[in-house]
Structure formats: C-alpha cells, structure tokens
Amino acid sequence: MDKDNDPSGESFNRRLEAARERIKPRKAAERDTGGTMSDLGLVIRSGTELVSALVVGVGIGWGLDHWLGTKPWFLIVFSLLGGVAGVLNVWRLVRPDAISTKADGPDGGPGRL
Amino acid sequence: MAAGSSIDALGQFELHPVLGALGESLRFSQSPMMMIVAALLVLAFLYVGMRPAAVVPGRLQAAAEMCYDFIYNMAVDTIGVEGKAFFPFVFTLFFFILAGNYLGLLPFSFAFTSHIAVTLALALMVFCLSIIVSLKVQGAKFFAHFMPAGAPKALAPLLIPIEILSFLSRPVSLSIRLFANMVAGHVMFDMFAAFTIMLAGLGFFGEIIAVGPVVINIALMALELLVGALQAYVFAILTCIYLREAVAH
C-alpha cells in the first residue's frame, strides 16, 4: 500500500482497523435498533403473539381428538396449554431484560417470543 | 363493490381470472399477477437504480443503496456476522412484502398480502429455514431448548408442551399479523367508501355529510402507508430474530 490518497490523511492500517471494527458483531447493548419503528413493531406484535399460540393449541387439540376419537379431552388440555404459551410469548416480548437481545433467555428457553 | 344499501366489504378479496382467455385456462388470478408485478418492480428499482454505479450516487441510486444498507444493517445487527449469509433472503422478503402492501393501496389493484395462503407460505418458509439452520448449527442440542434450564424435572411434562406450542406459534403469528392487518385496512377503506355512496343518496344534507367518510379515507390512507411499511419491517425483523436464535450456539 504505497499509494495512500485518502483525504483524511489517516494511515491505511488505522482505516483498515476502523473498517474491521465496523463489521464486527456489535455488543448486546448497541444492538438494540431503537427508534420508533421497532417500538411500534413491538406494540403490533404483542397482540398476535397472545392469540397465535392459542390458535395452535386449539388446532393441535382438535386434530388429536379428531384422529384418536377422544372427543373433548385433547382439545381441553391443548387449549389451556396454548393459552399459557401465548402468555409466555407476550412475557418474553415485554419482560424487562427483553431489550438486550441475547440469543437465549436466561431461563434457557428458545429465546424471546 | 358496495351496490345500493348493502356493504360487501370482503368481495374485494375474491380472486378472479385475469388476462382474458389465457388467464382463464391457466387459473391465473390477480394475486399471482400482483406478485409478479411486485417482484419486477423491486428488480427494476435495483437494476435501474444501480446501473450508473456512480461513486457519487444520483437520487435513484442513493435510494437503492439506502434500501440495501437498511436491510444489511438490520440483518447483521440482529443476527451477527452470520447475518451476511441471510441478508439476500431478508432483503427479498422485506421488499416483496413492502411492494405487495403498497401496490394493494393503488386503485383497481389487489393486495396479495391480504390472503392467508400467501402470508402463511412466506411464514412457513421462514420457519422451515430457521429449523434447518438450527439443526445444522446446533444439532441435537436444538431440542434441549425446549426444556427451560434450571426448572425442576417434575415440571417437564408441563413445560415442554408449552415451549413447543410457543415455538410452533411463530409461523402462525407471523402470518396472521400480516394478513389481518392488510384485511382490516382494506375492509375499512371499503366501508367508508360505501358510507359515502349511501350518504350521497340521501339528498342535499346527505351529500354534505358524505364528505366525512372521504376525509376519513384520506386519513386511513396515511395510516395504511405506515402499516404497510411497518408490517414488512416486523416480518423482516422477526425473520432476523428467529435466524439469530438458529445460529446461536
């Protein structure tokens, strides 16, 4: 690198280091995208998170009943489990440490959501 | 759509063959046609925008580069360095959905994102990809995530089904969110437009009051522009979050 015609006058090595720093994965605190876009996204998400787990629970319960001919039992159990999972989804979304974007929740579950 | 005094707010979501006899024989409806239009629009935007490849970009090139940077930063910031590999996927998803949402706002157009078949297909694509990546990166350890660490073993029969249901609810919530928001927006447009027609038929005072729903529809259009971008953003960022969990060891 004998030709260095960067107007800022910084050495090539220093600029290379700065560029490497930029592409490094950022730390959890910096990763929070912030801004109104993700705040609004959070609000929009919370409602469907609650309902969708219930939908899945009812669907699985109804399907198992239909398949095994055990009419109301699986539907009852999986509706309850689905409701619980829905509350869990919302809790993962809004819990105080959910902002720091760790890969896994402290409880070891499949992360938030 | 709304004839006389009846409001048919859901008629706008019906699929009809387009392009005459050819479309009739191919069962080619508005939905795939608008998908092709959306895909071509995004491709044309990037191709025409980036063709000058100028060091100092013009307006269109700057817009294309900003879009690229926006999604690139989202993917890399959320997923980490591995996000580079998934950036094209996230970029395609975001702009396909965004173009679909916005094209649907044009008169005589059709919003293909208002069909659950479309949004569920997109969500299942994301879901399957995240499972494949999880299994490839984490192997059998992936299944250990379904038992919260530190919880008493006796609770496992209760906790594991809950975690699995919570995991399975992801594609459902992804698809329902996009689909429901688009349907709700378009139904509201149709309702207020129908109010205008109904009020206008009530004589002189009706014609004056009929301005009200038109004003509301204009405000709704602004809201829908926000919702369209926001839904595409939420879909893309959730894809990133799911993929981050997949690549995390």
UniProtKB/TrEMBL annotation, chain A:
Keywords: Hydrogen ion transport, Ion transport, Membrane, Transmembrane, Transmembrane helix, Transport. The lineage of its organism: Bacteria, Pseudomonadati, Pseudomonadota, Alphaproteobacteria, Acetobacterales. A possible function for this protein is to guide the assembly of the membrane sector of the ATPase enzyme complex. It comes from the Bacteria. Belongs to the bacterial AtpI family. The keyword Membrane applies. Residues 1-38 are annotated as: Disordered. InterPro entries: Atp1_alphaprobac (IPR016989), ATPase_put (IPR032820). This is ATP synthase protein I. The chain crosses the membrane at residues 73-94. Residues 1-33 have a biased composition (Basic and acidic residues).
UniProtKB/TrEMBL annotation, chain B:
It is a multi-pass membrane protein. Its main location: membrane. The chain crosses the membrane at residues 33-50, 85-104, 116-135, 192-212, 218-243. InterPro entries: ATP_synth_F0_asu, ATP_synth_F0_asu_AS, ATP_synth_F0_asu_bact/mt, F0_ATP_A_sf. It is found in: Cell membrane; Membrane. It holds the Pfam family ATP-synt_A. Keywords: ATP synthesis, Cell membrane, CF(0), Hydrogen ion transport, Ion transport, Membrane, Transmembrane, Transmembrane helix, Transport. Belongs to the ATPase A chain family. Key component of the proton channel; it plays a direct role in the translocation of protons across the membrane. This is ATP synthase subunit a. It comes from Komagataeibacter melomenusus.
